[in-house]
Amino acid sequence: MKKTLTVLAAGVPLVAAAVYLPTASAEETRNTATATACAAPSVKAPAGTEVESVTAVRQDGGTIHGTGILGGDVSGVPAFCQVTVTLTHPGEADHAKVQTWLPSVNWNGRFQAIGGSAFSAGDNGVGLGAAVKNGYAVTTTDAGVGDVLDTSWVLDGKGHVNATLLKNFASRSQHEAAAVGKAVVNGVYGERAAYSYFTGCSTGGRQGYMEAQAYPDDYDGILADAPAINWDEYEVATLWPQVVLNDEKTYPTDCELDAFTDAAVKACDTLDGVRDGLVNDASRCDFDPRRLIGTKVDCKGEELTITAADAAVVRKIWDGPRTTSGRKLWAGVPIGADLKGLAHSAPDADGTVKGQPFPVPALWVQLFLKKDPNFDLSKITYSEFTQLFKQSQAEYDKVIGTDDPDLTAFRKSGGKLITWQGDTDEYIPAQGTVRYHQQVERAMGGSQRVDDFYRLFLAPNTSHCGLNGQDGSTDGLAALTAWVEHGKAPRTLPATLINTKGETVSHDLCAYPAVSHYKGQGDPALAASFRCVFPSSPR
């Protein structure tokens, strides 16, 4: 399930992050342990922390309403025991809550932890409820910070970044939640979980990679989707479209942005061998936006003409951020992705059109880099953008970059890692995830050694955290449990996708670097009509 929510930031509608829910059922495994008593267990404080409080409350279940901006609902949740443990790091004045929900009956013997979204470190209740519904004992932590766009914690009274809470958010609170959650499961049920899993998308995906890199023994399996790894780089990079709009003083309307995307998808649709409303390898789409110069676009009854300036802006946004000398800094918005996510503009009260930056990178630059919540993002020049990019790398790569390619310890621990990501992710370019996967292969001896424990799947025509929602569905958690518990490595991820016509089609997501290609016959809406091939293979 994904819930996409429109929020108001500075009076402008912007798409917020997604509530991500893995969809795996509890399969056939059932455990007889119960949490009927629901008493507060004794919890040993993880190293470097103190336990401030432990509470246990029996909840009747039913429909769980998600808290905060993202909201959302999950119904049919059975009764569960809710245990809340509050931790602090002595002398650091923080208070991080770890919530663990345990099914009162029919626990499947598994432990699951759920990551966060944007600037939230944990789940808002919907993911917890879905996990309990599927038989899991499940944990999340708030890391002592707030909701997805709550950055009130970032700057202290002296205008400095709160290093304690940043460290919590970046890494250590997830590790501590793993220890606490497992201890709660053992304390309530009287036995340990047979298997432990971490699931998350976006921020949650980054947290999953952090676990694999820094705490390789915490989980047997990690499902880390659309991961916000390379955080210090991509957060600045996603402000690039706004820098382009402002520096070029050209603001294509949303209708015109959609026209560029639609034309590119139409031009590259047949790369997979058939016109089916899906571009199966967006990185190979080389559509030139200048082909639309002079094209008429109907925008709510008004006829607009795409100009050379419009095309130049889109070309720069697709290409991605570069230095003033032309050196590539990061991947651009993927061709086929919704340009409105990062390149939206709108008229203000006096009719002047202005760029409307997506809140997450905007807050990153204002608070973490400029340390000034009133910093005017519209004034950033191309030269200053490069400086901000380098500053972010220098100050935060070691803290929250989450890009260490050496996963040797995770592999030795027997851990398995699966990632899927939309090939048209409008907020976190899939090419950043691809680049990291390539770095892991180089660091660890090639693709065969990496395939033993880590596989990446790209989903055509799928937005940020889009699967299990309006862009289709796949069951990554089921694939992960089969790999961990039965040794069945996933060659593909069976999925349903939504093509450009809004039709639901069946597709198998191929393990990177393979891509899906039409066999030459059969119904294009069926997975059986496609096979996975390597990009260098004959088309």
Written account of the structure:
The chain has 539 residues and is of the alpha+beta class. The protein has 14 helices and 24 strands. The chain has a 9-stranded mixed beta sheet with strand order 5-8-9-11-10-12-13-18-19, sandwiched between helices. It is globular and about 70 Å long. The two termini are 35 Å apart.
Gross morphology = globular
* Rg: 23 Å
Calculate the terminal CA-CA distance, rounded to whole Å: 35 Å
Helix content: 25-40%
Helical element count?
Answer: 14
Provide the spatial order of strands within the biggest beta sheet.
5-8-9-11-10-12-13-18-19
Q: Tell me the major beta sheet.
A: 9 strands, mixed
Class by SSE composition: alpha+beta
Identify the notable features of this structure and list them briefly:
single chain, 539 residues, alpha+beta, nine-stranded mixed β-sheet, three-stranded antiparallel β-sheet, 14 helices, disordered N terminus
